[in-house]
Amino acid sequence: MNKFFLAIIIVLLFFLSCDEEQDSGTIFNYPLETQWSNVNIENLSRNDTIIIFAEFNFKAQNAQSLIISVPSNVNFKAFLGDTLIANKTYGEICNLNKQELKEYKTPITPYNVPSNFYLNASQITTEKIRFEVFKTVPKKGSENLGIKLFYSTSKKEEKIHVDFTNQVKTFFSESKLPIININTEGALSDDTKVVADFFVVDNLGGNNSLKDTATIKGKAKIKIRGSSSKALPKQSYLFKTYDDSLSKKEISLLGLPKESEWVLYAPFIDYSLMRNVLSYKLHSKMENYSPRTKYFHLIINNDYRGIYVLVERIKRGKNRINVAKQNKKTIDKDSITGGYIVKLDKGKGEAWASTFKSNIDSGFGKWFIHVYPKSKNLTQAQRDFIRGYIASFETALLNGGNWDDYIETKSFIDYMIMMEMTKNVDGYRLSTFYSKDRGGKLKADPLWDLNLSFGLTSYYDGYKTEGFMYKDKASPFWWQYFMQNPKFKKAFKARWKELRKTVLSEKAINHAINEEVNLLQSDIHYNTEKWMSYKETNNWRKEDQTSFKGSISYLKNWIKKRNAYLDSIFLQL
Predict the structure, then answer these.
(1) Euclidean distance between CA atoms 206 and 134, whole angstroms
(2) Nearest-angstrom CA–CA distance, 570 and 573
(3) 214 near 241, Cβ under 8 Å?
(4) Which residue has the higher pLDDT, 437 or 533?
């Protein structure tokens, strides 16, 4: 059965069974003079959005209710005059009964749509009600879109006139963010990179459109990336750039320094879209390296994917982690000291455990993992050196030795400050990177994967503004020892005090957040229209999920309370 007719039947059954406020004898099946709008989409792009406008007046003073039926696979908005009264991602049956509109002083969002919308009958007679039914084109062909309207009055002869117009709206016609458009030669997977053509539209501060001339064109290879995030509907991708002969090619994407390896990060759980971006930028302002970022719109195979973040992939290089280059001939006493990049994670790769295994949560299965040089490129001498270096540091820390001979203390302090200030539930134990340059000490940078920070989660008490993450049993014992060491605590206190007057002051943090808001706010509706229908059913998310504005307010308030708590502890060390 056609889904639209089924929807109408449901509407009728609903009204016959549940209305108790109407005059006796009133039947909820009297249709307006309306129609389904049949839109031919043969010549439209899948990135276009069809919008059906319906605008009408109630002519009858005694109008009691209006029933709106919309297809289940479209979005709709409802306005009373210029006031937004409904913003529903999936169409539902809505019953506008005779009650005061003032009961709903704020716009209704997709997460708090009531079963009934209440309108004053006198307002209905004097104000136009406008509905916008919209949907991204799924495929070529033709499709019925529109709304069916039913109403109830005490006088059936009083009809309501409805004017329908169709409009096709192209995504990015007024986009402020740049666009990356990718067309692959095969299906995307998390196993194998597939070849793709891509083009970029980045008009440097002006509007961007798919109709604009590409500012960059090229070849790439792309695959799905991530761990648990791969199961989300909005997926992240590993993206590598090549020339036409598929030889690796370094390019500057969206103004970032030249490289060939990038991450197309998909902020999905984080409704603000900025937790990773904000963390990286604050850490960089503290004179450390963390990946640079840029927001953009992503299209893959004519499917609009929403707002993404271009992120520098963590790797050795002059524009990334700038440690000395190693090869299998690096064997002399000086050159073998660097460069190295290792991480703590549960991911793939040759791993080794700390000498002090009792401090490790074995449930994660992995501990230190070689990032650079890769395991397959390591000589045994290189492998022995970096493992031995970390073991010597741990031994000195445990035995009261000169542990600071082995580490760049500032980088460790800054890392710890960021983990605790953000209360990153994955901090210390997952996605934690360390680097060592030739002749240098071990550094705790860059930051990576802080999407579950700033009060977003309930597990590990991540939403609470009190408590500490370094005490988690899965974290290396280092951090607890640091916070018992007078020398480290003195340096930590001084650094926290300094940063709270500069980079981490309330004014500076709010300014940093507002900078991201300014970048996103003109385009955030595109992402919302694409993904708002995926309601988060898990109860571990604590962020305000009703609006972008609400998520930003939550973020600012949470940080303010968190830093006040940390002040009460860190300034007393």
Answers:
(1) 26
(2) 5
(3) no
(4) 437
Residue 201, both tokens:
């539209």
The whole-angstrom separation of Cα 557 and Cα 565 is: 13
The DSSP line for 304-369 is: EEEEEEEEEPP-BSTTSB------TT--STTGGG--EEEEE-SSSS-EE--S-GGGS-GGG---EE
> Is residue 484 within 8 Å of residue 403, measured between CB atoms?
no
The sign one gets for the Cα dihedral 130, 136, 137, 143 is negative
* Three-state DSSP class for residue 96: strand
Letter for the amino acid at 224? I
The average pLDDT across 533-546 equals 63
Mean pLDDT, to the nearest integer, of 92-109?
Answer: 44
Strands (E), 18-108: 30-31, 36-40, 48-56, 65-69, 75-80, 83-88, 94-98
Would you give the end-to-end CA distance of the chain in angstroms? 71
Give the list of residues 6+ apart from residue 566 with CB closer than 8 angstroms, or none.
420, 421, 496
CA angle 56, 62, 64 (to 5 degrees): 75
Residue with tokens 């090549």: 242
SS3 sequence of 370-385: EEECCHHHCCHHHHHH
Q: How far apart are alpha carbons 228 and 348 in whole angstroms? A: 14
pLDDT tens sequence across 414-461: 999 999 999 999 999 899 999 999 999 999 999 999 999 999 988 889
Indicate the residue type of 192.
Answer: T
The string of pLDDT tens digits covering residues 231-249 is: 788 899 999 999 999 999 9
